[in-house]
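Hey,

The postdoc asked me to send both predictions to you directly instead of through the lab channel. I've kept everything plain text so nothing gets mangled by the mail client. Protein one:
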Amino acid sequence: MFKTPLWLILAIPVLTAAWVLSAWAASRRARAADALGKASTLAKITEAAGARRTLSTRLRLSALALILAALAGPQWGVELVETRASARQVVVAVDVSLSMNAQDVKPSRLDRAKESLSLLLDQLRGERVAVVAFAGEAHVVCPLTHDIEAAKQMLTALEVGAVPTPGTAIGSAIRTGAALIGRFTGAKTVVLLTDGEDHKSDPLGAAREAAASGVKVFAVGIGTADGEPIPVEGGGYKKDARGSTVISRLAEEPLAQAAQASGGAYFRSSPGMDEIAEIVGRIKSADSSQGLAGTASRWRNRYAWPLALAFLLICLEMVLPLLPVAATRPQRNSLILAAMVVLLAAPPSRAATLEGSLREGNRRYNDGKFDEALELYGAASGKKPADPRPVFNAGTALFRLERDSDSAAAFDAVAQRREVPRALRADALYNMGNTRLHAEDYAGAADAYRRALALAPDDEDARRNLVLALRRHKSPPPPKQ
């Protein structure tokens, strides 16, 4: 395997030209020697020098070939590496209280909020995002992730009643969002999508606390000043204690105050959602931070091997005049060339086949062809059943194909193998927890996250997801209609 095989193609004309030049120089020297005297006499005098010069030429050509091979970037073997990326941390908090059913913004305030969230997520690709749903309290729906598509899948979970505690606690939403991102460096932002009604949760105080940890709050007010009655399940509208119809109005002042206190800004939702582009522009103009994006497999670069050999041959050519004449005869260089061939042929073909299947599977996975990736991971596992990486990768592909039980089984198989490195077992348990969380098996998800934390106590994502799973287990969402 070569990273830039073009250099191998260029090696043919380059080496040919170098050999022709050396042959031409040798012929010029031979003609000059003929002009100085009899060839038989000169041959006895220059025999040692000629042998030394021939070996020197071959060493130079071999070194040139090895340098060209190094430029081609030989690769074999696969290593797991952490991928780090510049990113900004953004939490989007969506109001799912009963008042978001009001239809003064068509089709409803909540539908407008979900459309704004979808557009916002699309424009935040490359950043780390999280989604929080709030009513009387705030729940993390999607932990911080670079996977925008995974975050968008949570749109279906944002319905009135998704948070069982009634009311509207904007302050709780700001505090929950700030807690998710407060420990990071670079730009940290909480975006509120709400009608602004608040039930004594002190959004202004929460915004000031967020500002103290470097978090800015941007608020998008959804609704109108005139307001609208709040539809309720079964027909009709919400009534107050005296039997009067409740009119829900957009409360802009507390949102504007909270945003201003944190150094952010307030926007009123518009039909074209132009405010989203303005918010994204302000977020991306701020400083980013270097953070861990995930793990990836890549080929090991082996250019150092041919480069080191080339260096040794050049050094040998430089000290050649100091060596005894007997050691400079052309026949001696056969050992050097044989050693070079053995070293360049070192990569085992069986490993290259296994790693090739893994690499091609990862390429298909990144292209969204999860079923094809799953087949390639299966082929890789068949070549070397003891290697846990194909099984782990198969689990991620199965998750994408929404085969939750199969995905969890794959991750569990990796996690139970004691010979697998702790870091990979912890990642497998974390992914198993996500799979069970997606399947609404909150008890199973919590158990997986606990096991992951036992192996990796510093994993903040696992700790946050454990809290989310426990909350869902205690207060499961209402059944789907």
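Protein two:
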Amino acid sequence: MSAGVASIRARGRRLTPQRALIWDVLVERGDRHVSAAEVADAVHARAPEVHRSTVYRTLDVLVEDGLVLRADLGGDRSYYELAAEHHHHHVVCTGCGAVAHVHDEAIAAAVACVQAASGYRLAQQELTFAGLCPDCAAR
């Protein structure tokens, strides 16, 4: 049994076949960011009887339980990924839509500057940067 499936049960949730299938689809995507529609399409390909609304509700439950992260990447684009051991931020290509991760260490100085300038002690945050990926910038 995978850690995620065990975590679903540990949080007092029933492990339905639909939840297990949705979890498996997310695990197969690894660290890719996938839309709810992509997850629903992959689930439908294996189990046509599973409704899209079930997929959307289950994604919400997995986010609520901290097993999956929802990243709002601008332009009304919400993507899902498995919760990682490390906190990270996103860089989104405005040309092709590619998404890359940027880890906390890369922006630590900027966060320190914001804290110093504002006087706030920042809580965990997620930042999304937009720009052109190397391939799009080379075109």
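Summary for protein two, as requested: Residues 25 and 39 are 7 Å apart (CA to CA).

Thanks,
C.
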